[in-house]
Amino acid sequence: MLEVSKLQVNYGAAPALWDVSIHVQRGELVCVVGPNGAGKSTLINVIAGLHRARGGRLAFDGKDITQLAPHLFCGTGIAIVPEGRRLFTGMSVQDNLELGSYLPQAKQHRAASMDQVLALFPALKAKLPSAAGSLSGGQQQMVAIGRALMSRPQLLLLDEPSLGLAPAVVLDVFKAIREINAGGTSVLLVEQNVAMAMEIARRAYVMEEGRIVAEGLARDLLGRPEIQKAYLGIEAH
């Protein structure tokens, strides 16, 4: 479904990504993990059309989208839940959600999509008239995920969904991500919480300093001593 080949990205003269290649198959849940500054958010923002690649190729459903205009990415079937949520805090929860379904193909299914989002996040039902900025951090993350789902994406991109959330809320968010994937939506998850991400993902990529340094089945990577030491603080004996 998604093929990223030898991707190169710069911020001005400074290189941010070097020869990054990843793929996501239809129906997969794949995670990209690594320390702060590894390039994870840059990678996912390029896939979402928010940053331009300096080199390499992006293909989605067999079509080259490397040079596609940013505002056309949503129409391809890709949706992003950005780091920090980026809600319109003065607008109602319902208005924030409905903004996700402005494209014609999504708008005609708006009512059914709204029902699906509220079934996934029942706590939002009573909050629909409330300003998004009045919600808790966890509820705002639910709105951000729901807004992306309103576009009926084939591929959902999630950038650090656990950031700033209480542990109990993180569990709820990751449970919802599992359910979204089980419903048939492919998921690419960028996350600093390595243990949680690898627990729900089928495959994983590890990034450091703008490069992919390891890849494979998530359970296999999580069992490697160097991964445990670097990201989980577990010393091999």
Core attributes:
33% helix, 26% strand, 10 strands, alpha/beta, 9 helices, globular, single chain, Rossmann fold, 6-stranded mixed β-sheet, 237 residues, 4-stranded antiparallel β-sheet
Largest sheet: 6 strands, mixed
* Poorly predicted runs: none
Q: Which of globular, elongated, flat, extended, rod-shaped describes the shape?
A: globular
- The average pLDDT value, as a whole number, equals 94
Please report the number of helical segments. 9
Strand percentage, roughly? 25-35%
| Backbone CA Rg | 18 Å
Count of individual domains: 2
Strand order of the largest sheet: 6-7-8-3-9-10
CATH fold type of the largest domain? Rossmann fold
In terms of quaternary structure, the protein is single chain
Secondary-structure-derived class: alpha/beta
Beginning-to-end CA distance, first to last residue: 40 Å
State the fourth-level CATH superfamily of the largest domain.
P-loop containing nucleotide triphosphate hydrolases
List the helices and strands and how they pair.
Elements: E1 2-11, E2 14-24, E3 29-33, H1 40-47, E4 55-60, E5 63-64, E6 78-81, H2 93-99, H3 104-107, H4 110-120, H5 137-149, E7 155-159, H6 167-182, E8 186-191, H7 194-200, E9 203-208, E10 211-217, H8 218-222, H9 225-232
Parallel strand pairs: 3-8, 3-9, 6-7, 7-8
Antiparallel strand pairs: 1-2, 1-4, 4-5, 9-10
Helix pairs in contact: 2-5
